[in-house]
Design a protein that fits this description.
Layout lengths: L6 E5 L5 E6 L1 H7 L7 H4 L11 H17 L3 E6 L5 E12 L3 E13 L6 E2 L9 E4 L5 E3 L2 E3 L11 E6 L2 H10 L4
Parallel strand pairs: 6-10, 7-10
Antiparallel strand pairs: 1-2, 1-5, 3-4, 4-5, 7-8, 8-9
Length: 178
Amino acid sequence: MSASDEVYCRLDKRNRIVGVGGAWDRFALANDGQSVMAARVLGTDFLSHVSGEATRSLLDRVLRGARRSGAPVVLPFRCDSPECERHMEMTVQAEPASGILLAYRVLRMVPLPVPLRFAGSGLPRGRMLFRCSTCNRLLRDGRWHEPSSVDAPATPIAVSYGVCDDCRDTVERLLPAA
């Protein structure tokens, strides 16, 4: 991802999306994200677009911490496509009037040996796995596993999103001191 592929999002003091930029729509379309095209997200609550209560709660804490300290927070995360691991970072920067600028960029991409598809809704809950919203690992049999280690079924893998303890600890460590 080049600088022209970076994605930006501006929030007001109530976490409403007041602007998006960079390759926002191109990234959304490339990732089956028609529902998060710029025209559809402007004016909406940013956290309403985040899957999983644990993820929303942690991200809300990050936004509050950045506003309180004024220091930028840089968080690593994964945002995989079905064919590729995408190792990314999100920079959270406080702006005037308690706004926030979120800047996302891809650090590196690694092809997956087998395409993986995930779905968070519309699938039976009995075989649902927890997926960490930060590192994308899957919780199976009490342990977190890389998605590529899971047998790829012909149908999407049903997931519910959360945050693993390792990622929660990393985020807490990267937050500015209160």
